[in-house]
């Protein structure tokens, strides 16, 4: 068997070789090196199967979508035998209220505010909350972060990042909607942005409730 | 979710998590995601060679899975079901973008893409010196058609008949593309090793 003949059958070869092929490999170092290299590449490749981690944003987006589609169902809450702390009950009311408020606020703000300059809409930043390169957060966002920080300190940074991101989304959406008030896609974009913020509130409060 | 809760979620067995996810349990969805995210994301990343696209596809694959989880009856392993779904999501996306899933036959192969034949060349042995990082970079440098078949066969472990069905090519074509992909990888790896050796 020649090297050319061996090379022709190589793509069809599995783990085993015929007697003739084995004989060629024993006598030809170039072909045996080639086979060894291809096997080494193949073996190393298997180790790549799960070598990369997605960013945490992927799960966040999946969770938001699952909630929007109603695939995640709220667990049936058992009534506590002892009275829940006052703060807990206040927060329970906040879950649907915050969600409804945010969506309604977003729609009203868009309907009324199309002619106003953007500078007038912005609230002065609360002292000490402006972070370098990031937009200041409104009072209700800070209140939410405070609640999350008290109940789930490890999650505070993640929710802060979520809020910054969704606020940036809202700002972009508002800008698009203001620049062309008749653009239905921009309006839908804005509604989606507020719904996403409502979802962040819902998730944060849902998880941080006692 | 707190760390303690997260640990609890990870301790859920896959079967328990599947049953609870069918009832809409958020922790069960997250547990299933945590069990399989690395493999699904790695697959998407290597197939697209683009982080943002890989994250979108990972999201899409898991969403499809969770939407259909109620129909999972356990005839096949859950991981097999999920990975097949992920591959289909990626292939669908690539088709939408009009990218070739398989390189056309040799007639369309460019001189640049075709692995060079270096039988008998000295210093031709790589075995034992293929490291993971080098291999990852080399795979990303493969032409898309070669990359697809190589990933499905050598990384994901699909057989040629399965690949032929998924990608829509003949079994012979799949074998031929795989061989060319491996040859091309060998060439890229050797070139990068030679470049490294010449650097002071």
Task: Summarize the structure in words.
The complex is a heterodimer of chains A (210) and B (200). Chain A is mostly helical. Chain A has 9 helices and no strands. The N and C termini of chain A lie far apart (77 Å). By secondary structure, chain B is mainly α. Chain B has 2 domains: 94 residues, RNA polymerase sigma factor, region 2, helix turn helix motif (Rna Polymerase Sigma Factor, Chain: A, Orthogonal Bundle), CATH 1.10.1740; 93 residues, Arc Repressor Mutant, subunit A (Orthogonal Bundle). In chain B, helix 3 packs across helix 5, helix 6 crosses helix 9 and helix 8 packs across helix 9. Chains A and B meet through helix 3 and helix 4 of A and helix 3, helix 4, helix 6, helix 7 and helix 9 of B.
Concise overview:
Chain A is mainly alpha-helical and 210 residues long. Chain A has helices at 3-9, 19-27, 29-46, 56-68, 86-112, 118-121, 139-151, 156-179, 184-208. Chain A contains nine helices and no strands.
Key traits:
heterodimer; A: mainly alpha; 67% helix; 0% strand; B: 200 residues; Rna Polymerase Sigma Factor, Chain: A; 2 domains; 9 helices
Task: Please specify the SSE layout and strand pairing.
The complex is a heterodimer of chains A (210) and B (200).
Chain A: H1 3-9, H2 19-27, H3 29-46, H4 56-68, H5 86-112, H6 118-121, H7 139-151, H8 156-179, H9 184-208
Chain B: H1 3-11, H2 14-22, H3 26-48, H4 51-68, H5 78-96, H6 132-140, H7 144-155, H8 160-167, H9 171-198
